[in-house]
Amino acid sequence: MEDATMTTPAQTAVAATPEDAQLARLGRRRQRKSFLASIVGQLLEWYEWSAYAVFAPFIALALFNPDDAVSGLLATFGVFAIGFLFRPLGGIVFGRIAGRRGRRFVLVTTMLMMASASVAIGLLPTFESIGLAASLLLLLARIIQGFAHGGESATANSYIAEIAPARKRGLWGSAVFMTIFGGAFLAFVLGGVITGALSEPQVQAWGWRIPFLLGAVLAVVALWLRIGMVESQVFQEGTDDEDPAAADPAAAASAAEAVPADQQADRVAEVGSAAPAAEAVTRQADRVAVRDGLGEDSFSADTLKPLSPALSIVLIFFLVSGVAASNYTWTSYVSTYAQTQEGMSPSGAYWALVAALVVGLASLPFWGAVSDRWGRKPVLYVFAVGTIVTVFPLMGFIDDRPWTLFASTSIALFLLSAGAALLASVMAETFPTSSRTAKIGFAYSLATAVFGGTTPYVNELAVSQGVPWASNLFIAFAAALALWAAWRLPERKGIDLTIVR
Question: What confidence score (pLDDT) does residue 460 get?
């Protein structure tokens, strides 16, 4: 069996001389820079997405009929769900674009769309000013966000998994969900600061707009970082077959050797040069940084056997469904539940969630690293079984004391992280490069629309009808689907993504 630490032919080709070692270092630096650009942009987009849920009670009174608070809150969460319904369409459209024009182009485009819609929400006139038009404009902004977010999530999951070292794909992939928790963390921190510094009438009048407008400032930094991203080498190897120097490591290495040794350092520095030899050097450096995956000899025939397109999509749909239902309950809805049903103060609820999200953030890289060592399937079982067993007692434990919200949510997020940390790596190891982003876009976005975007609405509806157990059953059912998917998915930890079929 081939060991994950064995040196590949490509690595040997570029590690023979000090100049070639410099190429490898260049590839790793570019790899880390692109990784940072991707997660910073993801963090901003999830911050903007989470801000809507955090300030939902205030948005309901500002942009819907304030005379009916319950209907307004339900309508607010309904608009939240509609944004999710457009995510599958965005995932399909941008997934196809990412398969043709590259991951980088989509990540820049979707970030601009998300930021623009966020600014629009922050500037919307109130219901008292323009009536129903305020609600309709909010709906339009959320549709744009949902469409863009569908493409963003699929592409980011593919991109990070593709640029990650194969032996650390679980750890690197966990960063995708770290941006989700991190975005919620920032939104809740800002929620706590705003509700603590301003009176409730001030927050209702204008304070709720601050997080959406702040997103515009952060978008400038994120855009600057993303413009400098490099394209995924896994993607380029699948689209550059007509270029021998790009598609074949040996050809690229030969082109690199054609550059005199005393000029290679200068070539390395000229990353943006259009010279063919310099381009070959740079492309080869990027390739070496990621081509350390396990080959076909390391897996059984059954493990490598391609899943049917329909089955692979269904399995990922079920897996993401379990994660999404739990995630949006414990990061988007539970704060509203604590305030409206248990009488917890808004500030207390926000800070309890902030502290719990720290636990969730710390848990994600832990579970990602565990999966790189012991495999994806055991960690997925921890998430699914743990969620089914604990959802009822954890929700029942919450009362008007903030520490109860912190305790319940911390345990829930620790278990959720076991599934969430692995989504990027598992999805990338399930779908082939040629259709990876499009299939992830469809399965991931559809699952979050059905079991994610609707979860806060289902939760609020069940509680308002006096049957809170129904919302817990909804979460347990979604986790059961994820458990079945984890059982059926093959174990492909550390596989070279270019051999996935």
Answer: 80
